[in-house]
Amino acid sequence: MVRVFHILLTSLTIVACLQPVISAEKRPNIVFLLADDMNRDSWGVYGNKDCKTPNIDRLAKEGLTFDWAYCSVAMCAPFRQELYSGRSPWRTRTLANHSKSTVDTKSIPHYLKPLGYRVALAGKSHIGPPQVYPFELLGKKGGHSNKDFVASASQFFDDCSKAGKPFCLFIASHDGHAPFTTGDPSQYNKDDVSIPPYWLDTPVLREKLVQYYAEVSNFDKLVGQIRAALEQRSLWDNTLFVVCSEQGVQFPFAKWTCYDNALHTGLVMSWPGVIKEGSHADALISIADMTPTFVDAAGGELKAGDVDGKSFLKTLQGEQQVLHEYVYGAFTNCNIINNRDRIFPIRSIRSKDFALIYNPNHKKITSNVTLDGKGSAAASWQALQGSSDRADRLIRKLKHRPEFEFYHLAEDPYELNNAINQPKYESIIAGMKKALFEKLEALGDPDPIATERSLVKVGGNKGGKINHPGPIHLNQP
Ligand SMILES: [Ca+2]
User: Is the pLDDT score of 149 beyond 50?
Assistant: First the structure.
């Protein structure tokens, strides 16, 4: 009997040791609201004067605004798989649109569930295969309205509260993604909105911009509604609440490129008692950093090689962190509307000061629905051909890109003046080219044209053949 009791006690001790150090009560909930194809500069907090985003702006006033967060690829499937796995799209083989991760990929449900979390996804998925992303899926299929999200999230919050379980919920809205159908466009007057300098002012662009702003404001409304649902249940104070714009809008020089409007992500977070009110994060952040940060915040520990990103928990706690000297970007035309098999890869390297963009197949043209689609804003630009040098330059840029583009972001934030041939930048350009090519070599992508050919061959969905398969770490020197 004594021996049985001893075994039982030993077993209990082992079980107790396996429990996470942070008690269930202390573990924060995580609620992540993800927009779709939304330029960060469509939000008031990032300087937009026309588009109404009062809930996001309020969150920024009370929380932390990220000034330098970047994704690796400005497309839905690669973005989301980088976010949920913490791994680079080169490693998960998700460089192409509509691609799915390799089966050995692990993701945030694998890391948070053993810590006692319920980990759920509501809305848009665009990830796979299911065993790689084993989220609880909330709501009915196709239920992507704000009303649907509030209903399914509220039920989930109630269930978790009742069971005393911490939770991590991603709410992935379609708002921002073309065609623009949600929200109320009548709140905006197309003649009054200002047109940023990287686009040409045409009636078609104005009409579409107003419809797009209606979707942005509809997403902002959801931010307020989900916040209210947490507050009503007294869950707000122990919740890390995140709002993210995803990648650039489906207009020229944003989605499906490596320009700043494509890869620069709008990111605002609140965590009462931890995040300082009205603060700004100065660190260069990659979307792959998100999963390790959430696991860190939940008291978990990742093994070496689990993720390519780094935790920025200390940034949330108000410390200065330097995580990356550079962030890297990629684009492949494979699987893109109006261009499923034209080879036009793009690669980029960015610091906070400079951007270098590499177009290896520069003698060919690039094209997709944002650059020449019937009825698109870009198609309407053709009427301005010959009207000014600026118009001619932007129209040419739709399809023709030089081998290298270099922009000094403080002087030229809209990336309008390619400074690749300016002697004063010679050494900076040489350093960034070296860093980019070393990184591409390490990522198994030394020849982006060959990579893209392999993606086209398999339709992109299977991730194609990368030249040097194997674990790849974004943080390798
Ligand atoms: Ca998207």
Answer: yes
For 82-150, list the strands marked E by DSSP.
Answer: 118-123, 136-138
The CA 184 to ligand 1 mean position distance, Å, reads 21
For residue 449, the CA-to-ligand 1 centroid distance in Å is 24
Query: Which residue, among 247, 265, 313, 296, has the nearest Cα to 77 in the 3D structure?
Result: 247
Residues 310, 346, single domain; the answer is no
The reply to whether 465 falls in a domain is no
Burial of 477 (0-12, 13-18, 19+ CB in 10 A): exposed
Ligand 1 centroid to residue 73 C-alpha, Å: 10
State whether 307 and 334 are in the same domain: no
Query: Ligand 1 center to residue 3 CA distance, Å?
Result: 60
List pLDDT tens digits, range 194-252.
999 999 999 999 999 999 999 999 999 999 999 999 999 999 999 999 999 999 999 99
Per residue in 354-371, pLDDT tens? 999 999 999 999 888 888
Phi, psi of 155 (to 5 degrees): -60, -45
Please indicate, yes or no, if residue 1 is contained in any of the structural domains.
Answer: no
Say if residue 470's pLDDT is above 80: no
Residue 473: inside a domain: no
**Per-residue pLDDT tens over the stretch 111-141:** 999 999 999 999 999 999 999 999 999 998 8
Last residue of a domain, one of 296, 318, 340: 318
Q: Domain for residue 468, yes or no?
A: no
Domain around 75? 24-318
Per-residue model confidence (pLDDT) at position 181: 96
Rounded to the nearest angstrom, the distance between the alpha carbon of 124 and the centre of ligand 1 is: 10
Q: Angle at the Cα of 264 (from 299 to 464), degrees rounded to 5? A: 80
- CA of 242 from ligand 1 middle (Å) equals 17
Number of domains in the chain: 2
pTM of the model: 0.92
Which of 280, 300, 318 lies at the terminal end of a domain, its last residue? 318
